[in-house]
Amino acid sequence: MMTFTFLALAGAVVAGLVTAFVTPAVRRVALRRGWTDQPDGRRKTHKTPTASVGGLAIVAGVAAGLPLVLWAAPTLGVAGTSVPMAALVGAALVVATGWYDDVRGLGFKAKLLVETGVAFLLMAAGYQLDLSVVPFIGDTPLYVIPITLLWIVGVMNAVNLIDGVDGLASGVAMIAFLSMAMAFGFAGDVVLVLVALVFVGALAGFLVHNFNPASIFMGDSGSLFLGYALVVYSLSGPTSADPRLGLAVPILALGLPLLDTALSMVRRGVGRRSICAPDRDHIHHRMVDRMGVKQAVLVLYAISALFGVLALLASLSTWSGVTAVVVAASSIVIGLLVRLGYVRLPYTPPQITSSNAAPTRAGKRLSGDGATTGRRLPELVTSDETDTAESLPGDPSLAAAKPGGSLRIPSGEGRTLLTKTALDRRPASGGSAMDGEAR
């Protein structure tokens, strides 16, 4: 009898190898036919035209590995299974729509129409959220249908939105599949574990070519397909013995893309812009601005892994243990929002005072007293800068300092020595001088 470990490795390796070897061929065809993503010098990070239909290679890997594990699954002592026709038709529609968008371009409304149609197709085939345990909702179609529709369309677009940096969507999807697979495994569904490992193998094979610097992007053909696959996977069985906890597992496993999508909707709503208007204020954009592409992607992988661990804990916990999971998830979200500047904490500027007398007019302006209370101190100039300090208006006591020198400000009987400050280094607009655009 074929062992579970052997079959799991076989499915993942086959999917990974097929994807890894097909991806260069897809890239050559894409470059020859002009199926590329053009750099814009603003929102996108890549510098040269890059093939953008890499999702076709992922589909090829999954198509090679999935029939293998489903065919061999009965050897593990489980009932034979197959992918429902509705799920296959939906996958074909999603991939075709994504490919057309990559090649010709497709409006948001047209894509949303296809996604909605696919969602109803899945619901008709029985893929629905189990809300029977939710108070005041139950299994009433009036609530189940719109909530399931929101889940299906929302996840597909969440994965699509997070595909803005080399390797990010691939890695986040891998982690989400792994975390949900472990939850299904503890629930006793070994077939769904095998299915997830096929996707993990295919994504690993693609990531070889997609990690920074990427030679090919997955495009909408890949991101929509992965979002669709994650949705179908999350609705394929119970992830916990308690259905109420089972609802939390896929939400936590997809915590990062769902959080980014929620922020985008709030941001665009507050700014009175179209919900589908592209911008450069996603979580990955802010991370890239702070630490570069590779480091940002690795940190976001780690955050996704934390959400995945919380998803697994939720599947194994009782209601008494869910409190700790909720607190941990909330801490991650709040910390991330604060660290990236989405939420600003109150700031108290430091005070510079003289030990013997009241500060001079210049001292007041620098310390934040008087008319300029609340203004942040400018950054200190390093010793190798050659700017010449200018006297503050109306204060003849300040003389120009030599490059790399300092200013001496009289302060009553004593003298306070202040390092020369870069008062004029902030742009007139009030924004950061390093503001830019990235993919």
Q: How would you describe this structure in keywords?
A:
two-stranded antiparallel sheet; globular; 439 residues; two-stranded antiparallel ribbon; 15 helices; disordered C terminus; mainly alpha
Structure description:
The protein has 439 residues and is mainly alpha-helical. The protein has helices spanning 4-33, 55-72, 85-103, 108-124, 141-162, 168-186, 190-210, 219-234, 243-246, 248-253, 255-270, 283-291, 293-316, 319-339, 361-367, and strands spanning 36-37, 50-51, 406-411, 414-419. Helix 1 (4-33) packs antiparallel against helix 2, helix 6 runs antiparallel to helix 7 (190-210) and helix 6 packs parallel to helix 8 (219-234). Residues 361-439 have low confidence and may be disordered.
SSE blueprint:
Elements: H1 4-33, E1 36-37, E2 50-51, H2 55-72, H3 85-103, H4 108-124, H5 141-162, H6 168-186, H7 190-210, H8 219-234, H9 243-246, H10 248-253, H11 255-270, H12 283-291, H13 293-316, H14 319-339, H15 361-367, E3 406-411, E4 414-419
Antiparallel strand pairs: 1-2, 3-4
Helix content: 55-70%
Overall shape: globular
Class from secondary-structure proportions: mainly alpha
Q: Uncertain regions: pLDDT < 50 for 5+ in a row? A: 361-439
Question: How would you summarize what this structure contains?
Answer:
By secondary structure, this protein is mainly α.
